[in-house]
Specification:
By secondary structure, the protein is of the alpha/beta class. It folds into two domains: about 1-115, 2-Layer Sandwich (Alpha-Beta Plaits), CATH 3.30.70.260; about 115-340, Rossmann fold. It contains 14 helices and eleven strands. It has helices at about 40-50, 85-90, 95-105, 135-140, 145-160, 165-175, 180-190, 200-205, 220-230, 260-275, 290-295, 305-310, 325-330, 335-340; strands at about 5-10, 55-60, 75-80, 105-110, 120-125, 210-220, 235-240, 250-255, 280-285, 300-305, 315. The strands form two sheets. It has a seven-stranded mixed β-sheet with strand order 8-7-6-5-9-10-11, sandwiched between helices. The chain has a four-stranded antiparallel β-sheet with strand order 2-3-1-4. The longest helix is centred in the C-terminal third of the chain and has 15 residues, at about 260-275. It is an enzyme of class 3 (hydrolase). This is phosphoserine phosphatase.
Length: about 350
């Protein structure tokens, strides 16, 4: 019987989870901690033991600093004694792990411990609420006084409650009459802000030789702006029709919509073009329409995502900075600093 080796990365979340996982009799007391303490590590070890996974205690490694006692990000090796990692798949979706994450306010990311973990070659990102802090379509709607209405539809779509393609067309229709100069305005008036850590993460990944792409259910003019600002290699998004006189948007989306399936197809298309094994591809997003590409990639990361997305994504991280994603690849803070200097 063969065994499988995995790495578990534990990151302390900066903000407490809002609700405990479904299925508990009552909500447990949330432990307030500044670091991933020995108590937290022991609690995680107990979860692994319950599922007959062998957690190698001598492999605990601090990532965010040099001391295990004051680290907010750590990793440890897990051995799954079952063929093809049967037990580790149970851990990924089990109530005990969800309860651990809630009680100790820790995110746990699991990956096969192979050469591909550190050696990523293609990273694709969602744009809205991932690389940038806004949902662009909501900001466009503000120009015709329907931001609240559009934002409510956006929120439902990102939670996976609505079909993305249909919801995009219905929201775009409300943009009829928005000035065609709106994208230039959004870029120049400070409305569009990059997520903290976006620039440093992309800079580090480029230094590692990664190709980078933004695959967005938003709109091409801002995707091109993000591509240029972050030094990305590819940008794919939707196109809004402009009126015949060039003065305003018509509310019509042209061509194929970049929905969940299209994002996954583009991910594979770029990987094939660049000659990249899918095991070396990472997909990062926050909405339900990012789940398909996350599963297609060798490693998918839900960043500050909706609860449903966190539950279904291959991994999740709640952080104030995108740069923390580098911990998931096994890099220490000192190594990240070297990459950025």
């Amino acid at each position: 019987m063969s065994t499988s080796t995995y790495t578990a990365t534990l990151l302390l979340s900066p903000t407490p989870r809002k609700s405990p996982p479904a299925g508990g009799v009552e909500a447990p007391t949330v432990v307030d901690s500044t670091y991933i303490t020995e108590t937290i590590r022991d609690a995680f070890s107990a979860v692994c033991t319950k599922l007959y996974l062998n957690l190698l205690l001598d492999t605990w490694k601090p990532l965010s600093c040099t001391s295990l006692q004051t680290a907010t990000a750590v990793e440890v090796t897990i051995i799954d004694p079952t063929p093809s990692g049967i037990q580790i798949r149970s851990l990924k979706g089990c109530y005990d792990l969800a309860l651990f994450e809630y009680e100790y306010n820790v995110d746990v990311a699991l990956q096969r411990d192979t050469v591909f973990r550190k050696h990523k070659r293609l990273v694709v990102f969602d744009m809205d609420s991932t690389l940038i802090e806004q949902e662009v379509i909501d900001e466009l709607a503000a120009f015709v006084g329907v931001k609240d209405k559009v934002a409510a539809i956006t929120e439902s779509a990102m939670r996976g409650e609505l079909d993305f393609t249909a919801s995009l067309r219905s929201r775009a229709a409300l943009l009829n009459g928005v000035p065609s100069t709106v994208f230039t305005t959004l870029k120049s008036n400070g409305t569009i802000t990059f997520t903290p850590g976006a620039h440093s993460l992309c800079r580090a990944l480029k230094k590692l030789g990664c190709k980078l792409a933004v695959l967005s259910g938003g709109f091409q003019p801002l995707a091109e702006y993000v591509k240029s600002s972050l030094g990305l290699d590819y940008a794919y998004a939707n196109t809004l029709e402009v009126s015949a006189d060039g003065q305003s948007l018509t509310g019509v989306v042209l061509g194929d919509i970049v929905n969940a399936e299209r994002k996954a197809a583009l991910l594979k298309e770029i990987a094939e073009k660049e000659g990249v094994d899918l095991r070396q591809v990472v997909a990062v997003g926050d909405g339900a329409n990012d789940l398909v590409m996350m599963r297609e990639a060798g490693f998918g990361v839900a960043f500050n995502a909706k609860p449903k997305v966190q539950e279904e994504a291959p991994s999740h991280i709640n952080s104030r900075t995108l740069q923390d994603i580098l911990y998931l690849f096994g890099f220490t803070a000192a190594e990240v600093e070297d990459l950025l200097n």
